[in-house]
Amino acid sequence: MKDAAAIASAAATLRARREPFLMATVVRVQGSSYRRPGARLIATAEGRLAGTISGGCLERDLLRTGFWRARHGPVLVRYDSQDLDEGEPVLGCGGIVEVLLEQGTAGAEDDPLALLTGVLSSDQAAALATVFQTTDRSIPLGARWALRGGSLAEASHPGHPRAPGLLDAMASASAKVLATERAACLELATDQGVVDVLVEPILPAPHVFIFGEGPDVLPLVTMARHLGWRVTVWGAPDSLGNRAHLVAAGAVVESDLEVVRGRVDASHRAMAVVMGHSLSRDREALRAALASRAVYIGVLGPRHRTASLAAEVSHGLLADPRVHAPIGLDLGAETPEEIALSIASEILARIRGASHAPLRQRETIHGGAT
Asked: How far apart are CA 358 and CA 337, in angstroms?
């Protein structure tokens, strides 16, 4: 989430300067890896970076060799922890990572970032399909398609073949990718060969709506923004004494509840946090959140307080699967900063569909990777 914003910002800077750059995209992983398919980094000849694809080992190698490797066009590079060739980076995670390297100049015809940044700027959910291996000469390495609603929205170059069978398969995969919010790798046969395609979800940043105005709001705003989430804070105009600090931290501050409710309904992934420390204000906030399209509604405070609110707002409140009360994970949090960490952790788990369980209780960290 934060990587996407950083890459979009870097693309704008590069475009203004018409500066050449290298884009590295993790396209396939076997076994363990630090990042999953779809992770990216952007580098210039001076070494400026946006995004990450590893814990540092691959970045060091790509800054040293990436431009040379991609000098003749897009190239697939394989990093294998079992391959101990001198000069190759050693992967401490013990897996195999395949990375697509592409050179380009921002704003030029060969700009590999153009379609990605276009999708990001649309603020709509889409799937991005990228060819990272091909034996079909009519479909070049690095060809890209953006898909929305199960159909083609845009291609990276007008000259790219439409390849109906290929596009049908990608469109079908895109529906699952967007539903699960997880990238998928496809191996697809065409009339002239075989192509390997990464299909990844490109999603608007989650939007956290905080209903409250106490001193514990700012730490949550700060943490949410650090994670790349959007934040809107609702509070009474005369009680938002820290408004300047909230705005400086990256929040949008709004005192009109109906305006906030409209923004919740317009958001792709809206998370509502009720933490007003006022029963009357929290009742208003809960009514608005329950009637909205928020996918997560967290309520700060003990269970008996929420039960009291439920008696006045909605008897079905505690049975609503969106409602998390008390909000947060059991981290033993005491301070506002610790409480913010507890809340943000639960929201992140909801976004990722994770279990909250310690990783030591899992056989693998990511799906099929140890």
From this structure: 21
